[in-house]
Design brief:
Elements (H helix, E strand, L loop, with lengths): L1 H12 L3 H8 L3 H8 L7 H21 L9 H12 L4 H8 L11 H10 L1 H17 L1
């Protein structure tokens, strides 16, 4: 199951194994053997890959319709750092919630605050982001 999820996200984002290794900190050899089906990964590594790909999905959504060139590792690492510092939270939530009109009446600051403190809401938004990326 994890192999398919990781491979699907990599494919949707057009991220190579080398790029994913650079962004995630998980070794290229581990990613290569995992994606090739010859070896499983430790749970920590799987979580790191999935978290990294989820962050890259958020970046792709933020800048859509402009494409992100994930080959530009130094520049994308800056975007990832900014994302980790919650610099794009409001934009992420706003774009993800386009599919939830019932939440459109809530002000952006409240949504941002809820996203940052409510793990369940964050998972819901992250799921919407992943679905949005698949539809781009």
């Amino acid at each position: 199951m994890w192999r398919q999820i990781i491979s699907l996200k990599m494919s949707r984002l057009d991220v190579s194994q080398i790029q994913l290794a650079s962004y995630s900190g998980v070794g290229l050899a581990k990613i290569n053997t995992f994606c090739g089906g010859t070896r499983e990964l430790a749970g920590v590594d799987l979580e790191q890959l999935n978290a990294t790909l989820s962050a890259l999905e958020k970046i792709a959504l933020i800048f859509h319709p402009a494409p992100i060139d994930f080959r530009k590792v130094p520049e994308v690492k800056i975007l990832l750092k900014n994302l980790a510092n919650h610099e794009y939270t409001e934009e992420i939530v706003r774009k993800a919630l386009r599919t939830k009109p019932e939440l459109s009446t809530i002000d952006a600051a409240s949504l941002k605050s809820r996203y940052e403190r409510d793990p369940e809401f964050q998972r819901e938004i992250d799921s919407m982001i992943s679905q949005s990326i698949g539809a781009l």
